[in-house]
Write a structure and sequence with these properties.
By secondary structure, this protein is an alpha/beta fold. It contains ten helices and eleven strands. Strands 1, 2, 3, 4, 5, 6, 7, 10 and 11 form a nine-stranded mixed beta sheet that branches. A two-stranded antiparallel ribbon has the order 8-9. The radius of gyration is 19 Å and the shape is globular. It starts with 5 loop residues before the first strand and ends in a 5-residue tail after the last helix. The model has no long low-confidence stretch (mean pLDDT 94).
């Protein structure tokens, strides 16, 4: 029996064979903490299962493979993992971590031991880009309530930049976020109807008076967009990413600030126009269709079918 602080970890995979091995290799070298890791697989069509099976968790960590046999989206995978981990009464903090991250050896312990009031809500840290190295991807996010657009605090700033005040953060990225047992009990499961994007933003708004905290010593490196083609330095977002993102943004605004729908629609048109000027017509069409609640473009539908996506 270890007397190390404990931390539950949920990693949701889908077609992650190319990245999950490196993620686990770094995560399982965490020191000063005992990890209980569940890899929840959303029906991967590749060798993700074999890659995970090849990693044996060293003491004091343990690693479990938990296939869902369906692709119900990011939040559905997170909720599946949380249900498993919350059966262990000795776990009070749960780290939701992307499979395309790389974890420094002291980050997990920083999350597990960060001073927090009983029953805090969400705990975030710094996410930096793995490529190019050294630039911040997000230090927590805010929402422009006129359009529903989210913005990453300190994005593209040098990794030596001072962290933000926790009071300035509206949500923590789902790529690396820690939630408390009290938060999950009060807020309920992560909302599953977005499928991709905005589920962590919506969830953060459900925390009520539970505080959102920031741990400056909890850093991960992120190979952003390896699975769904999200935007990252030097690469525009894929039509698949754009359709889901703008579909989710409008769903979020409709739910939390319906008076802002005209602004949200105007932003949709402006964003599509920007992509037209860049001659990225497939992405522009995906933005318009997602932002106005229309079915995805044909190429996005093909990719959804190939990935077993069920909305």
């Amino acid at each position: 029996m270890t007397d190390l602080p404990r931390l539950g970890v949920v990693i949701v995979t889908h077609g992650s064979a190319d990245v999950i091995g490196d993620c686990l290799d770094t995560l399982l070298q965490s020191r000063g903490v005992a990890l209980s890791v569940v890899v929840v697989d959303n029906d991967s069509p590749d060798a993700t299962a074999e890659v995970v099976a090849g990693r044996r968790a060293p003491d004091p960590h343990n690693l479990r493979w938990c296939p869902t046999h369906r692709n119900g989206g990011f939040a559905a995978g997170v909720n599946h993992g949380l249900r498993i981990l919350m059966e262990d009464a000795g776990l009070d903090r749960f780290w939701i971590l992307n499979p395309d991250t790389l974890v420094p050896p002291d980050t997990a312990a920083a999350f597990a031991t960060h001073a927090a009031p009983d029953g805090f809500g969400i705990l975030g840290g710094r996410v930096i880009y793995a490529d190019p190295p050294g630039a911040i991807q997000i230090d927590g996010g805010i929402v422009d309530w006129r359009t529903g657009r989210t913005r990453n605090l300190n994005q593209n700033a040098d990794a030596g930049t001072a962290p933000p005040s926790a009071s300035d953060i509206v949500f923590v990225t789902g790529a690396s976020m820690v939630v408390s047992r009290t938060f999950v009990d009060r807020a309920g499961p992560m909302p599953e109807d977005y499928f991709l994007y905005y589920e962590e933003v919506d969830w953060a708004l459900r925390r009520g008076p539970l505080p959102l905290l920031y741990c400056p010593d909890a850093v991960v490196r992120h190979r952003a967009g390896t699975s769904i083609g999200s935007q990252r330095p030097g690469r525009l977002a894929s039509p698949f990413s754009e359709w889901f993102k703008h579909r989710a943004r409008l769903r979020f605004v409709r739910r939390h600030r319906p008076a802002s729908l005209p602004g949200a629609w105007a932003f949709t048109v402006a964003k599509a126009g920007q992509l037209v000027l860049r001659r990225d017509l497939p992405a522009a069409g995906a933005v318009l269709r997602g932002g106005f609640g229309l079915a995805p473009p044909r190429d996005v539908r093909r990719r959804m079918a190939a990935g077993g996506v069920t909305l």
